[in-house]
Design goal:
By secondary structure, the chain is an all-alpha fold. The chain is 74% helix and 0% strand. The radius of gyration is 29 Å and the shape is globular.
Length: 379
């Protein structure tokens, strides 16, 4: 037969029968020359064979894409992207609250309460004033979120592998604390320059309109290294905050699934799992605000006053003031912020086919068995 005739006949063959092997091609040639009854019988036989042979099937376009493998480069990339969305968008959304909080910390005689703070800002700067500094906030916390969540997942796996399955199951909270602290050290290096400009723009009227003119002014005034003047207080604020954020979230979510929900996590709907993520994140955020608040006051003071030191801040604000000034507003802001961050982060993970964060940890014996099985699979 010539090529055109052969091509026209092959176009009639069902797509699930395509194959490159010579044996299967021979079978197709037999079907082409068989009677209609024999062809039908042959198709039925081959369909049964197809269902048992993965290499013989070409996936249809409607079939779901391959899921992201846990702890693969694609997994960490997805976690990084989720961190960018969760931190950048949420911090930008609460810019008005952050603006009032920073001004209450810097000038408590003028900004005496939350309501009066909003009133003063509206009177002096109008509605646009509530979003002053939103660009450095968005960029700074997007970079921080990328490093915070991406490196947390990396270090959590890294430290778990170092400890081994049995010790990881027994001391999982230490794994969460170490992983989150390591990630935040890196994340704050990305955040610090933007945080310095943001605070100066928000608390010094007339300094600059935003990042584009504020950054050059800041560098001209204090040098490039001045952007990192607040890195140590920032670590002092963010590392305890992040350790509490991740460790308490993991513990809260585990206990919700263990005691409050009467079925395993993998049997819960995705909407319920995301609700658990938001609730766990909100409660964790309240704890975060309390433990990190003194350092937050220090960061605001140092970034606002040129040449100021930690000693100057303690002397002016007072020890009690470091723990209490602006705390109620920060609890509301950070609780909402953290709950939304975990909700967005886990929603993105679900969107790309990954499980939500947290859940009931298997007992040590099960963890050891899983570790052994994993090692055997590698062999």
């Amino acid at each position: 037969m010539d090529l055109s005739e052969k091509s026209s006949r092959q176009s009639l063959i069902p797509s699930f029968l395509y194959s490159s092997s010579s044996a299967k091609t021979f079978g197709l040639e037999k079907m082409l020359h068989a009677t209609p009854t024999a062809v039908a019988a042959g198709i039925n036989t081959n369909v049964d064979a197809v269902s048992q042979s993965k290499g013989f099937v070409i996936p249809a376009p409607s079939e779901p894409a391959k899921k992201i493998e846990m702890y693969s480069p694609a997994f960490y990339a997805a976690c990084t992207a989720g961190g960018i969305l969760s931190c950048g968008l949420t911090h930008m959304a609460v810019t008005p609250l952050d603006l009032v909080k920073c001004n209450m910390q810097i000038d408590p005689t003028k900004y005496k309460s939350i309501s009066s703070g909003f009133g003063i800002l509206f009177k002096e700067q109008g509605v646009r004033g509530f979003f002053k500094g939103w660009v450095p906030t968005l960029l700074g916390y997007s970079g921080q979120g990328a490093c915070k969540f991406g490196f947390y997942e990396f270090f959590k796996k890294y430290y778990s592998d170092l400890a081994g399955p049995e010790f990881t199951a027994k001391y999982k909270t230490l794994i969460y604390l170490a992983g989150s602290a390591s990630a935040e050290v890196i994340a704050d290096i990305a955040l610090c320059p933007f945080e310095a400009v943001k605070v100066r723009v928000q608390t010094q009227p007339g300094f600059a309109r935003g990042l584009s003119d504020g950054l050059p002014k800041f560098v001209k005034s204090e040098g490039a290294l001045g952007l990192y003047k607040g890195i140590v207080p920032l670590w002092g604020r963010q590392i305890p905050y992040t350790m509490m954020k991740f460790a308490s979230f993991e513990a809260i979510v585990e206990n919700i699934y263990k005691y409050a929900i009467p079925r395993p996590k993998d049997e819960c709907s995705k909407s319920l799992q995301l609700g658990v993520s938001f609730a766990g994140g909100y409660v964790a955020g309240v704890f975060c605000a309390i433990v990190s608040h003194p350092a937050d006051n220090l960061v605001s003071f140092l970034n606002n006053a040129k040449g100021a030191t930690v000693g100057d801040a303690v002397k002016k604000i007072g020890v009690v003031g470091l723990f209490t000034r602006g705390l109620p507003l920060r609890i509301v802001m950070i609780g909402t912020l953290t709950g939304a961050q975990w909700g967005i982060y886990d929603a993105f993970k679900v969107f790309v086919g990954l499980p939500t964060t947290g859940g009931v940890t298997p007992p040590p014996s099960a963890a050891v068995a899983a570790g052994v099985a994993s090692e055997l699979a590698k062999v």
